[in-house]
Amino acid sequence: MSRPPRLTTGRIAALVIGVPISLTVIAWGALTVVALLSLDSFPFHRSFSPAASQLSVAVDSGDLTLVASGDSQVHLTGVAHYGLVRPTVDVTTTGAGVSVTVHCPWFVASECSVDLTVAIPSRLEVTASTDTGNLTSNGLDDLSLQTDTGDLQVNGGAGFLHLSSRTGDITGTAIDAPRVTASDQTGDVSLDFAQAPTNVSAQDQTGDVTVTVPAGGMAYAVSAHTQIGDTNVDVPTDPASTSEISASTSTGDVTVDAAG
Predict the structure, then answer these.
(1) Sheet holding 88-94: strands in order across?
(2) CB atoms < 10 A from the CB of 222, how many?
(3) 38 in a domain, yes or no?
(4) Is residue 189 pLDDT above 50, yes or no?
(5) When you count CB atoms within 10 A of the terminal residue's CB, does the N or C end of the chain come out lower?
């Protein structure tokens, strides 16, 4: 009759470490299965009259789209996807403005995201951000937009634009805003202006930077730099011009040119 294996110090250590890890993996797998089996979604719609001139919108996970409202109200329309825990949509009014927060509560192995469209009256200044998801603005003015992981797209827009991304492309088309700042860490930056700007700052760390202005316009004071890549400036330049374009990246190409 064979004897059971002797519990050596190494075997005891393996049991002490391995058993909890194995149980954790099994529990995680079971929760994941439960979360997938419980996947659900619900639509929501909410409207309110803003009592201030500033609006802040923050989304944890999901795509955010900003459009112009057809009236004086803010309209929230979206679809929430979740597993074990439902996300929340909170609207808070303070002295500083109105805040819309879409939050996915953290839970082990839970699935959660909210795709949100916000219709915004023209008089509001907007600050909007997504942690994980794309952010798109159509025809809005006076914006401060930020994504952590996701692309940022601006179509049109006057007043001022402050655009920032950590991981994702920043793209602006038919921009009417005279003042634009765009800052990216990993991704391309492309700004295409419908009207000649007066002050543009486009900065990147890893990615190409392209600034396109209308053809046949004024001369610009241009600063264009890259550490690893090519630089191309194809617009009239004048160091004394009051219209300034600064474009730079650490790794990538920098282009400042005129449309057409």
Answers:
(1) 88-94, 97-103, 54-61, 125-132, 143-149, 160-167, 179-186, 199-203, 244-251, 221-228
(2) 20
(3) no
(4) yes
(5) N
Integer Cα distance of 143 and 181 in angstroms: 11
Per the prediction, the chain carries an average pLDDT of 86
> How many helices (H) and strands (E) are present in the chain, helices listed first?
1, 21
What 3-state DSSP class applies to 29? Answer: helix
Phi, psi of 192 (to 5 degrees): -120, 120
Q: For the ranges 21-25, 78-82, 231-235, which has the lowest average pLDDT?
A: 21-25
Question: Which pTM was predicted?
Answer: 0.83
Domain of residue 159, residue span: 134-258
Contacting residues for 37 by C-beta, under 8 A, at least 6 apart: none
State the Cα angle at 56 between 53 and 60, rounded to 5°.
170
Residue 178 domain-assigned (yes or no): yes
Residue 110 included in any domain = no
As a dihedral over the C-alpha atoms of residue 75, residue 132, residue 179, residue 127, rounded to 10 degrees, the angle is: 40
Pairwise CA distance, residues 17 & 32, whole Å = 23
Q: Between the CA of residue 135 and those of 40, 90, 109, 143, what are the distances in Å?
A: 23, 19, 25, 12
| DSSP assigned state of 31 | H
Among all chains, which residue has been given the structure tokens 């994980």? 132
Establish if 230 belongs to a structural domain.
Answer: yes
